[in-house]
Each structure stands twice: as structure tokens, then as C-alpha cells.
Design brief:
This protein is of the alpha/beta class. It has a domain of 235 residues: 3-Layer(aba) Sandwich (Rossmann fold). Helix content is 44%, strand content 14%. It contains 13 helices and eleven strands. It has a five-stranded parallel beta sheet with strand order 6-5-7-10-11, with helices on both faces. The longest helix has 24 residues.
């Protein structure tokens, strides 16, 4: 009789593997969950190793920008990194130049600057708009607030910044719940009100690949099917908000401990850039409420971007920001950061245009 359960299990496993191998089925089931991201990574790992050729494995954060990149082609853009894995060619060490304020910018791909060259990111534009400022771009594609917090803990004190700028994107809140995104990653869980770190050290790619050979695709299929309706439950949104609040609190405490000032910038993406999206979006409302309750300076980049559209300026609303939006975002941020950092006034341009989109 034992043969029947074995035969059934074998049939279900084979059927699941066959179904997931079919692009129409896979594309229909794919979502924003651990299993989906892991299977997506499996499909492309042979070509790129991690997510991009410029990534490097990191034991505590999962992945990081590869140090020492020399003008690497990045689509039609150019990407460099210094010896510490910070975007840009400048070798900013832990030493400080007397009288020159230092800003560290943490965030995901919108801070990192996917789809733009080094000097076109909003972080690089801040240096241009605020002469005297040293702005270091610590953004890394695909990061959640958990990885940003760990990154800050690793480098915050040695760099001795005056200001830590956190580029906040609504999507990052969901990433905080994941243990696999662009690659395997750490995550925090709330246990009795305390943040408890899980998933470190992050397994190396060869370990992940070895484990995949033993994984059941039938179980993967069930988890993917369940993840989609679960993500729409009110309880999931409450967990997302609680965890993000705890991570932002921890980030704030870390910034205070190194003697710096925290500024959080709300960065609108895709549909949020459409004026028809409403007066305040979900993520925007969350962050403004958080900043008001914690007395943290919050700079909302969305209103000025909507304002320029009302004056007839077209903005890209799919994918990542282009050069134009990075420039506009930098101007909005610089106008709020200039006086507190003792850097004078930001030159204004009525049309808010840049040289090209």
C-alpha cells in the first residue's frame, strides 16, 4: 500500500516541475514572495552569478556593489565604484576634510541610480547643487530597510557623517518581509517588540544552488499560490507597517549613536508620479505620519515632481528614474538641506529642466 502515496508524491512533484517550466504558468504565478524571487534568480544565475555582473556576494547583506569598477557599461550608461564599493570614482576614505559637511545616502536602486550614469544620480547632483558638500552614494539595488540598516551599522561610525539621508521607496516595505529578493538576504522579525535578525550569514551562491537540488517544486508551487492572496490581507499590511516602523526606529537610533542627523526622503516611483494617483499615496502617508510622530526631518519629493508636470514637463513613469527626475529630486532635496548644513542657497530654475531627459 505504501507504493500509492509514493506514486502520488512523485506524480505531484513531476507535475509541479513541469508546470513551473512552462513560461505562461510561471509568469502567471510569479509574485513578490521569497519563492518567486528565488526561482527567478535560479533562471538567470548561470549568466550573471548574482543579479548583475557588478554585484558581489556579501555575508551579512546578501549582495553589494563590487569594489573597484572602472567605467563599466551599464546599459547605455556608465558605472564606476571606488575601492570600498561606493558608487563613483572618488576615493572618499574614513578621513574627513575640515569644514566640509559629509552626507551618506542609503537606499535602493533609485538612490543607487539604475538607468543613469554616476554623475546623474540625485546623490551626485546634490554635490553639484551644494558646493562644499561631500555626498557618498551607499545605495544598492534591491535593498530593503533591513539591509540598509546593516550597511549603516557597518560603515556609519567610521565615515563620521554629519547627515544620513535615507531614500525611502514604498516597495522597500515589502522587501523587509522577504528572505530572498535579488538574491538571498537577511531579514528581521519582530519578537516581543524586539528586532531579531534571521538568515545570517547569508549562504554563498554555491550553497543556494546545492540546496535547490533537494527542494520540492510542489511545495514551492503551493507557497507561490498562497502568497498572492495572503499579500492582500489587512493583517499582512499591518505586519509590513509594524516591521518597517521598527526598522526605521533602529536606523534612527544608529544615526543618533554616531552623532549624525537623520533625514528621510520620500522617493515616488512609477504610478506615484502620475497626478491622477491622488493627493497622498499609501507609502507617502505612512512615511509622513512616521516622521511627524518621531520628529524626524522628512522631505517629500513627490509634490515638487507633480508640480513640474502641472507646468507641462513630461516625466518618465515606468521603470527607474531617468536623468531628468534625478535632477529634479536633487533640487527638491538641496533646497531643504542647504540651510541646516550651512551651505547657502540653492540656485533655482523656473522650468526645473535639465539639459536632456
Amino acid at each position: 500500500m505504501a507504493i500509492y502515496p509514493i506514486a502520488l508524491a512523485t506524480f505531484l512533484e513531476a507535475s509541479a516541475r513541469g508546470a513551473l517550466a512552462l513560461p505562461p504558468v510561471f509568469d502567471r504565478l510569479i509574485g513578490d514572495d521569497d519563492v518567486s524571487w528565488r526561482l527567478l534568480w535560479m533562471r538567470r544565475h548561470e549568466q550573471v552569478g548574482l543579479s548583475y555582473a557588478f554585484d558581489v556576494y556579501h555575508p551579512t547583506r546578501g549582495w553589494a556593489l563590487r569594489p573597484g569598477l572602472k567605467t563599466v557599461a551599464f546599459g547605455d550608461k556608465r558605472l564606476t565604484s571606488n575601492s570600498r564599493g561606493v558608487r563613483g570614482a572618488a576615493e572618499a576614505g574614513y578621513f574627513r576634510v575640515t569644514g566640509r559637511p559629509r552626507l551618506l545616502a542609503f537606499g535602493d536602486s533609485f538612490t543607487f541610480g539604475e538607468e543613469v550614469s554616476d554623475g546623474e544620480t540625485y546623490v551626485a547632483r546634490l554635490e553639484h547643487l551644494l558646493p562644499g558638500l561631500e555626498a557618498l552614494n551607499m545605495g544598492v539595488h534591491g535593498y530593503g530597510h533591513d539591509q540598509m540598516l546593516l550597511y549603516l551599522r557597518e560603515v556609519g561610525a567610521p565615515y563620521r557623517p554629519d547627515v544620513v539621508l535615507l531614500g525611502f521607496v514604498d516597495w522597500d516595505m515589502q522587501r523587509n518581509l522577504l528572505g530572498f529578493r535579488d538574491y538571498a538576504k537577511p531579514r528581521f522579525e519582530l519578537v516581543g517588540g524586539d528586532l531579531v535578525l534571521r538568515g545570517t550569514p547569508v549562504p554563498r551562491p554555491e550553497q543556494v544552488l546545492a540546496e535547490e537540488r533537494r527542494r520540492s517544486r510542489f511545495v514551492d508551487l503551493l507557497r507561490m499560490a498562497w502568497a498572492r492572496p495572503r499579500s492582500r490581507l489587512a493583517a499582512s499590511e499591518a505586519i509590513r507597517r509594524r516591521l518597517t516602523t521598527a526598522l526605521l526606529d533602529a536606523f534612527h537610533q544608529e544615526v543618533d549613536s554616531i552623532g549624525a542627523r537623520l533625514v528621510i526622503a520620500y522617493l515616488p516611483v512609477e504610478g506615484e508620479l502620475d497626478p491622477a494617483a491622488g493627493e497622498t499615496t499609501r507609502g507617502e502617508s505612512f512615511l509622513l505620519e512616521y516622521c511627524a510622530g518621531r520628529a524626524v526631518q522628512c522631505i517629500d519629493v513627490r509634490p515638487p515632481l507633480l508640480a513640474v508636470q502641472r507646468r507641462g514637463v513630461h516625466l518618465k513613469k515606468t521603470g527607474h528614474w531617468n536623468r531628468r527626475i534625478h535632477d529634479l529630486a536633487a533640487r527638491a532635496l538641496a533646497s531643504e538641506l542647504a540651510a541646516p548644513m550651512g551651505l547657502g542657497q540653492v540656485p533655482q530654475r523656473e522650468d526645473f529642466e535639465v539639459e536632456r531627459p
